[in-house]
Amino acid sequence: MINVEAAGRRGGGGGSACGKTPIRAAAASLSPCLSAARNARAAVPPACCSKVGGLIKAAPKCLCAVLLSPLAKQAGINPGVAITIPKRCNIRNRPAGKKCGGFTLP
């Protein structure tokens, strides 16, 4: 499993799986996804799909880092549900089959 806390602290918040963006900021940008990340039956808002698609394009490892972070846990995000958002959004360039901790992107 990725040590997200350590990754987020490296280089004073930069140089992590999210590049120069601190994991906290990347997580905050995904706030439109909260309901969809908690409930597999919830509709995924277009704003969420847009943010997730942009994050996958810019820094695909960042999405995994955010999903496995303590921030996600505090927000009540279910990583097993959240990992399905790229597929639920029909994002074509999603890294399907890639591992994210104990989860695999569908």
TrEMBL record:
<comment type="similarity">
    <text>Belongs to the plant LTP family.</text>
</comment>
<keyword id="KW-1015">Disulfide bond</keyword>
<feature type="domain" description="Bifunctional inhibitor/plant lipid transfer protein/seed storage helical">
    <location>
        <begin position="18"/>
        <end position="100"/>
    </location>
</feature>
<dbReference type="Pfam" id="PF14368">
    <property type="entry name" value="LTP_2"/>
</dbReference>
<dbReference type="InterPro" id="IPR016140">
    <property type="entry name" value="Bifunc_inhib/LTP/seed_store"/>
</dbReference>
<dbReference type="InterPro" id="IPR036312">
    <property type="entry name" value="Bifun_inhib/LTP/seed_sf"/>
</dbReference>
<dbReference type="GO" id="GO:0009627">
    <property type="term" value="P:systemic acquired resistance"/>
</dbReference>
<dbReference type="GO" id="GO:0006869">
    <property type="term" value="P:lipid transport"/>
</dbReference>
<dbReference type="GO" id="GO:0005504">
    <property type="term" value="F:fatty acid binding"/>
</dbReference>
<dbReference type="InterPro" id="IPR039265">
    <property type="entry name" value="DIR1-like"/>
</dbReference>
<dbReference type="InterPro" id="IPR000528">
    <property type="entry name" value="Plant_nsLTP"/>
</dbReference>
<protein>
    <recommendedName>
        <fullName>Bifunctional inhibitor/plant lipid transfer protein/seed storage helical domain-containing protein</fullName>
    </recommendedName>
</protein>
